[in-house]
Design brief:
By secondary structure, this protein is α/β, with parallel strands linked by helices. The chain has 14 helices and 16 strands. The strands form five sheets. An eight-stranded parallel β-sheet has the order 6-13-12-11-10-9-8-7. β11, α10 and β12 form a beta-alpha-beta unit.
């Protein structure tokens, strides 16, 4: 049995105020009895350091909204109100509560807990309209997060064989392919352009610590990134291969931007890359109209790893003329099923990114047909960056971010991935799945709201529409 994969988390707070949902205020009728300090398990209430006879101002940032302090205060001196910034930050996809959850996971590396429980809708667009099978949750022997059973979250990047062939003497005839091992089905995608040097270094350091990869444009690589060359995937066009050959020689993976010329000359380009570095090549393509055809052609021409990129809300870049853009969940299923029908699914590794916002999106993407996911914006949110959607994507970087030491920023990213890894183990344990690679395409282990809705009400409403016509 291989050594169990573990991500070492460590509480790493940042000395800055982040988004919070409720604001707690202490009234003048407070008698400083300290009852709130005893009932709040999140330490939102403490006494003043300089004068322990008095209560300090409540620390709203750690509040989990359990209302215990409000209920137990003998004088009714505590009040709670919605934070206006929380309401202003809410978008159509990136919700304020998501940013808060990511921030807290980056701070302590733990699975988030809500004192008031889950109060939101049970369905919605994208991954929210998908429920995973939890039939094994009552069996503690499946509980991998607590070490009672070994659960592997590892995946392989590269081409896999459908079967093995041997000669009459038992010698292997099948040609084996080089693959790259990842202990976690996640890679880091570049979350934004023109990032500060310490942010890029932190992302690279975190990728190296948890044994994954960071995709970076080759033009932006600096000598400071050399120590992490083995965990950086340089992204370039096929015309720039010779110009970046020095860095490519140190890389374990390389990524090329997709275009028509690359598709027509893929064999020669792969041979050229093999001469320089011998690393497997990822082809990165935008998730737009007709992406299934492009992925199929790439796979048929020998591309082993394809990275399909949706926009930051998990939607295709250009929708059909008569319908809205598809969401990432549907794009993944469509691409996966296309390759299955053509009997070439195992010949290619599919990476999907765009809109991977929460830990549960990773196993859900794999159930839809992805081999692994690439995460981007949550990496910045872990460092204190705020995301606003309207009227267009807008990132607000905290003041002083460029002065925070690299080890602190890197540890926060590691903490976030540690929390996501724990949640992946919980989902897999509850599903009774011991290997992450077995998640791929297991749509029978999930329920999709659109399909249930169609089966239940589709015929009824179609008949009503026909009558009205």
């Amino acid at each position: 049995m291989p050594k169990k994969y573990h991500i070492s988390t460590k509480a790493t707070p940042l000395d800055m105020e982040y988004l919070f949902k409720f604001r707690i205020t202490r009234g003048e009728n407070c008698i400083n009895c300290g009852k709130c300090t005893k009932v709040c398990i999140y330490e939102a209430h403490k006494r003043e350091r300089g004068d322990p006879r008095k209560m300090a101002a409540p620390n709203t940032a750690v509040c989990r909204n359990c209302f215990r302090c409000i209920q137990e205060c003998p004088r009714g001196a505590l009040e709670k109100s919605l934070n206006q910034d929380f309401l202003n930050n809410d978008g159509s996809y990136w919700k304020s509560h998501m940013l808060i959850a990511l921030w807290k996971q980056a701070e302590d590396g733990k699975v988030p807990v809500s004192g008031a429980g889950y109060r939101g809708p049970f369905t919605g667009a994208g991954f929210d309209g998908m429920w995973t099978d939890m039939s094994e949750i009552v069996r503690p022997t499946r509980d991998g997060i607590h070490g009672r059973e070994y659960i592997s979250t590892a995946v392989e990047l590269g081409r896999k064989l459908n079967h093995l062939s041997f000669d009459d003497k038992g010698r292997l005839l099948s040609k084996t392919f080089d693959t790259v091992h990842l202990p976690l089905p996640l890679v880091f995608d570049l979350p934004a352009d023109n990032l500060k040097g310490n942010v890029l270094a932190a992302l690279a350091k975190a990728a190296a610590e948890i044994e994954t990869f960071l995709l970076l444009p080759a033009d932006g690589l600096t000598p400071e990134m050399e120590p992490y060359a083995g965990n950086i995937v340089p992204l370039l066009t096929h015309q720039d291969i010779d110009r970046h050959s020095a860095f490519l020689k140190k890389a374990r993976l390389a990524a090329l931007e997709y275009d028509g010329e690359l598709l027509n000359n893929i064999s020669g380009i792969k041979d050229k890359m093999k001469e320089i570095c011998g690393a497997p090549v990822i082809v990165r393509i935008q998730a737009g109209n007709g992406v299934e055809d492009a992925v199929s052609r790439l796979a048929q021409r020998g591309v082993e790893i394809i990275h399909i990129v949706a926009d930051y809300r998990g939607m295709e870049a250009d929708g059909h003329a008569t319908s809205p853009p598809r969401v990432l969940k549907d794009i993944i299923r469509s691409v996966h099923q296309r390759l299955v029908r053509e009997r070439i699914r195992d010949e290619v590794t599919l990476i999907f990114s765009g809109g991977i916002a929460m830990a549960e999106h990773v196993p859900k993407a794999m159930i839809c047909g992805a081999d692994l996911a690439a995460v981007d914006l949550p990496l910045l949110i872990a460092m204190g960056v705020r995301l606003y959607e309207e009227p267009e994507k807008f990132l607000v970087f905290p003041s002083g971010l460029e002065e925070i030491p690299v080890p602190i920023l890197a540890q926060r990213v590691i903490n976030l991935m540690g929390a996501w890894h724990s949640q992946l183990l919980e989902v897999m344990g509850a599903m009774g799945i011991r290997e992450a690679r077995r998640l791929r395409g297991e749509t029978g282990r999930a329920i999709f709201f659109e399909e249930v809705d169609e089966d239940t009400f589709g015929k009824l409403f179609k008949n009503r529409e026909a009558v009205n016509l």
